[in-house]
Specification:
mainly alpha, Arc Repressor Mutant, subunit A, 4 helices, 2 strands, rod-shaped
């Protein structure tokens, strides 16, 4: 399944459950749904969790397998239609921006510390100079 928004993916996932449930006359296994949609089991698990959270689908465990059924297909319409970009790419971009901000902050802090150090050395040099002057 190419990168699509959650709304489209959810509709496909529920449609696959519906088709397999019709063909098998029983709730289909998660692996069957993933196979029909040509998606990885990990991607299927991700979609399954999201749809479970939205209470669109339900699951039943039979002999160690997870079987899915449609709980309330109308709740699919609560999913926003906006296009979702790759969450990994978003996280990577956010991470890079944070690291860049941290780097700039660190450079500013270092520059401030160098300035303080320079002023301290100047002040010590003045005091030392003043202390070594012969008093008349």
């Amino acid at each position: 399944m190419e990168e699509k928004n959650l709304y489209a993916q959810a509709h496909l996932f529920v449609a696959a459950i519906r088709v397999l449930e019709h063909q098998q006359a029983a709730p289909p296994a998660l692996e069957s749904v993933c196979g029909l949609l040509s998606i990885s089991l990990e991607e299927g698990n991700r979609l399954c969790r999201k749809l479970l959270d939205l209470e669109v689908i339900g699951l039943v465990e039979k002999t160690g397998d997870i079987h899915l059924f449609i709980k309330d297909h109308v709740k699919l319409e609560q999913i926003p239609l906006q296009q979702t970009s790759s969450s990994l790419a978003d996280e990577l971009m956010r991470f890079k921006k944070e690291k860049e901000a941290d780097r700039k902050s660190l450079e500013t802090l270092r520059a401030q510390q160098e300035e303080k150090k320079k002023k301290l050395h100047e002040a010590l040099a003045r005091k030392l100079k003043d202390g070594l002057k012969p008093s008349g």
